């Protein structure tokens, strides 16, 4: 079977299973959605009428396929709390979340690449060893703790950057750094290990015997070969960034998906919560799918491992 076709089928199958589990899990929760909308003072006739409008009087399989059909057309229902379509609420929160995720990923790659190269040369330069211990510290610190430290330094002490709200590039620096300092240091360790493994290869000894400098060997040859394992880590970091942004958006009061998710949980807004879960699942699967495609482009041998 074609590699790309198989990955596409895996994507669709996994997404279908996620929608199935999500829908029926929410149906197991106690309480009536119609009663949640109308309130405890609603009459029985009103509840029955609304349940009919929401197709709640039909069997669960029929309800699922109606919901799935609507979801495929972009209709994820109406929010109980906001009385707006779930799709419009999610699309309205996307700019802040996407901006935060992109900036966090850029910072992650920069931090991981720079420090990964530095860490690979720690054994030859004693003055770089403290950086390795700093890396260990940041890996163990949760992103929300990092956020509080950055707010203390750059907002309360130095008065350089805002700590709340969404007003452009400057308001995203601290939130993205809060996420990237954790994911970037993890990426740095992988790059360090990959570079150290490549330094032991025969082609490196050949390059040295030809008189090439250490920096030339690293930047022209080793980094290219280290890219394969690093791409996988970047993909995992992208999904981790999406998860971390939920907490960080709440800390920095960003009007993104994270704050919307927290609001839907606290208010038991089931249609909104259901739509957000599907959104996060789609984004996560899409990131993994793109990483698989990019991995096959960098290393074509992976395509040949797929059996028909």
What does this structure look like?
By secondary structure, the chain is an all-alpha fold. The chain is 76% helix and 0% strand. It has helices spanning 3-27, 33-38, 44-53, 60-72, 86-119, 129-140, 143-157, 170-198, 202-209, 214-251, 257-266, 270-298, 301-304. The chain is flat, with a radius of gyration of 24 Å.
What is the topology?
Elements: H1 3-27, H2 33-38, H3 44-53, H4 60-72, H5 86-119, H6 129-140, H7 143-157, H8 170-198, H9 202-209, H10 214-251, H11 257-266, H12 270-298, H13 301-304
Helix pairs in contact: 1-12, 5-8, 5-10, 5-12, 6-8, 7-8, 7-10, 8-10, 10-11, 10-12, 11-12
Q: Which terms summarize this structure?
A:
308 residues, mainly alpha, 13 helices
Largest sheet: none
Output the number of helix runs. 13
Proportion of helical residues = over 70%
Proportion in β-strands: under 5%
Q: What is the global morphology?
A: flat
The whole-angstrom Rg is 24 Å
Structural class assignment: mainly alpha
- Write down how many β-strands occur, each being a DSSP E stretch of 2 or more residues: 0
- Quote the distance from N terminus to C terminus: 4 Å
Provide a concise account of the structure shown.
The protein has 13 helices and no strands.
């Amino acid at each position: 079977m074609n590699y790309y076709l198989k990955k596409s089928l895996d994507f669709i199958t996994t997404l279908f299973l996620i929608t199935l589990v999500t829908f029926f899990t929410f149906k197991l929760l106690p309480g009536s959605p119609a009663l949640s909308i109308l309130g405890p003072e609603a009459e029985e006739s009103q509840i029955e009428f609304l349940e009919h409008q929401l197709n709640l009087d039909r069997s669960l399989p029929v309800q699922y396929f109606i919901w799935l059909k609507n979801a495929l057309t972009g209709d994820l229902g109406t929010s109980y709390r906001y009385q707006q379509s779930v799709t419009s609420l999610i699309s309205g929160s996307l700019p802040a979340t996407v901006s935060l995720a992109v900036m966090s990923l850029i910072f992650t790659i920069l931090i991981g690449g720079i420090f990964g190269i530095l860490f690979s040369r720690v054994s030859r330069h004693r003055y770089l060893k403290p950086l390795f211990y700093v890396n260990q510290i940041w890996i163990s610190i949760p992103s929300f703790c990092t956020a509080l430290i950055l707010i203390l330094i750059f907002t309360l002490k130095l008065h350089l950057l805002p700590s709340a709200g969404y007003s452009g590039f400057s308001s995203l620096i601290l939130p993205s750094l809060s996420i990237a300092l954790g994911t970037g240091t993890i990426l740095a360790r992988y790059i360090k290990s990959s570079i150290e493994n490549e330094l032991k290869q025969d082609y490196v000894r050949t390059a040295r015997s030809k008189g090439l400098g250490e920096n030339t060997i690293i930047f022209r040859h080793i980094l290219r070969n280290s890219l394969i394992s690093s791409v996988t880590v970047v993909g995992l970091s992208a999904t981790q960034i999406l998860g971390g942004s939920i907490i960080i958006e709440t800390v920095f009061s960003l009007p993104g998906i994270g704050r919307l998710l927290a609001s839907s949980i606290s208010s038991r807004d089931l249609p909104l919560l259901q739509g957000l879960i599907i959104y996060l699942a789609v984004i996560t699967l899409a990131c993994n799918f793109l990483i698989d495609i990019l991995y096959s482009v960098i290393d074509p041998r992976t395509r040949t491992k797929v059996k028909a």
